[in-house]
Amino acid sequence: MIAVSAFLSVLAGRGVTDVVGLPDNSSAALFARLAAGKGPRLRTVTREGEAFALAAGLWMGGARPIVLVQNTGLLESGDSVRGTVVRMRIPIVSVVTYRGYAKMMKTLGAAPATVDVPLLSRTDLDSVALMTEPTLAAWGLPFERLLGPADLGRLEAAFVQAEEEHTPVVRLLTCDLQEDRA
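Structure (tokenized):
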């Protein structure tokens, strides 16, 4: 688990002005904190594809947004990702919560490089986890996993990579964001 305050500290250090997306179980604590007005502006959307378009518009207007969606929503966003942030080379960092990651790792030991119907139809695995990394690779999006607090430097590096390469960059959040312990 990663503490919300540690995550927000990275965003503050990179000048993030807006968090655009939809909450899920893994990101609920962060969305709750942002909804209370503690941190960057929260911009929720009704569908994840809207998040990338909204973030692109915010960036063009001078803001510094990130996108925060679940991997299911990332897949729903394909055309928005391809046609907007990739094609226009908008340097937005996206944090994608990785539904099904733990079960995939326990069962397979690694994320598959390719998927097929027999693998995707297995009832002991979440098919969205199986498709996440191959989809990002097919879209040409650079990505790394955030496994826990020790990996927050990878989130920091995502902002540098996005700026230097003028490209969208993804970080896959494999654990939950949790409210800070008292």
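The radius of gyration is 16 Å. The first helix runs from residue 4 to 13.
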